Amino acid sequence: MKIIKESNISTIIIVSTIFIISSLMLFNGYFFITKQYEILQAQIEDTKKTFVENKRNVLKREVDAIIEFIEFKKSRTNLMEPSALEALHHEVYDWIRHIRYGGQEHNYIFVYQVEHMSGGDKFAKMLINPNRPDLEGEYISDAYTDENGKAFRKIFLQDIHEKGYSFVEYIYKKPDSNIIRPKVSYFKLYKEWNIIIAAGAYTDDIDKEIDIAKAAFKKKMELEITSAIIIFLLFALIANTFAVMLGKRIERFLNTYHKQVQQKTLELENLNKTLESRVTEEIKKNREQEQLLIQKSKFIALGEMISNIAHQWRQPLSQLSALLMTLKLKYNMDKLDKTAMEIKCVEAETIVEYMSHTIDDFRNFFMPNKDKKMFSIQTSIDDVLRIIAMSITNQEIEIEVNILHDEFIIGYKSEYEQVVLNLLSNAKDAIITSERQGGKITISLGSDEQMVRLSIEDNGGGIKIVPIEKIFEPYVSTKEQNEGTGIGLYMAKLIIEKSMRGKLEARNENGGAIFTIELEKGFKETLGGSPL
């Protein structure tokens, strides 16, 4: 079942927007509240530590002040008199019993008279304890534990033995009450009188401060949550309005787009109906154009053939004309005998046979051959040179053939020779146009295990067209407008690459152009190709 449709897309956008915004706000709210509670808990822990540390400082200051007072009183008393020392003890202990510090009644000083520093059941007497006057004058044990089983007396004895003082946290009964509360006490040994002076403070006062902080935090959180809800509602209203506007705009856009798609679909359907006929018509036009080019190429080749025949026949015709003039002269002078007549007839027959053989060469060269067959590259080059060599050498252009060993390929011999003829003719024209002295055309044959490569190189200045591959396009020529048609190389490339499945490439090198025909050895039927 398709959930999202064009008809309900605006509703989906609105609902999705509200859901996403609500989820984000709830997540952020939960994260914010959780983080605030974590901060509060950390603050509580820091407050507790600070509170206890402050209590410790107060206790230490009070005990140290008492010891300083004792030292002060001692300096003002004649300790050589036993009664004076006893009076000093009495005065100091009575003063300590009534000390209260920090503005709290339950903050008092207590004193132990140490009997055995190593501990034990009677390690000391309780001299002063305003919270427990019933213990004053009684022996006390270090095995005593608080409500949690903590033997705090053993702990402070161990610390005093090691460093002379001790801080111990334990729980103890508050004065004038049976309530047990946490307490921290500071114990310090006054060696001269062999007493341990201690001060204690209850740490449950911090709970009141914590309750106040929690109440303030709760009030702050209520305010924050109320503000967040208002912001959320305002933001949701704005987002909802934006989502409605966006949804409606998208809906209008989709409707317009849908109409355009329908229009394009209709046009595409109409195009598909006529596409086949259009493709057929274009193919037909392309074939007709190609046939026109082929036909034009054949007419051009025919013109070149007539030109080459003229070159081939010029000398034999001159010889035949001279022979006839000789016969006429001898006849007028009555010197034409049978022997001379026979000699001249043999010479004339030789000349006519040469001219007839030339006609056969041209006729065989331009005779279309529809069958693929194996043929020799060397033989094809020789056949082409018999036709065009005279027109090249008459322009004082040297032809060099570098074929160390012959190669055989399977293909269309006559079409291959037409390509070679076209390339040699172009090379000749390039050298003539460049007006270069010492013109030269080099024909080279090379091969490897798979390919046969025939290169035709000239020194006619190279191809000026850029990029050089453009030379193979139809109606592109480097010759003057009235001298070239621009289809010779196009047809040559068509023959080699389409008809014989090879490759025809051109490049500039050593002050001239090099055309390379590359064909596979053993051209197979499976490679395709057909004569043009």
UniProtKB/TrEMBL annotation:
Residues in a coiled coil are 254-292
Instruction: Give the UniProt keywords, A-Z.
Output: ATP-binding, Cell membrane, Coiled coil, Kinase, Membrane, Nucleotide-binding, Phosphoprotein, Transferase, Transmembrane, Transmembrane helix, Two-component regulatory system
GO cellular component term, pick one: plasma membrane
Q: Name one GO molecular function term.
A: ATP binding
Q: What class of enzyme is it?
A: transferase
User: Where does the sequence pass through the membrane?
Assistant: 12-33, 225-246
**Keyword match ATP-binding:** yes
Chief location of this protein within or outside the cell: membrane
Give the matching InterPro entries: Double_Cache_2 (IPR004010), HATPase_C_sf (IPR036890), HATPase_dom (IPR003594), His_kinase_dom (IPR005467), HisK_dim/P_dom (IPR003661), HisK_dim/P_sf (IPR036097), sCache_2 (IPR033480), Sig_transdc_His_kin-like_C (IPR004358)
Q: What is this protein called?
A: histidine kinase
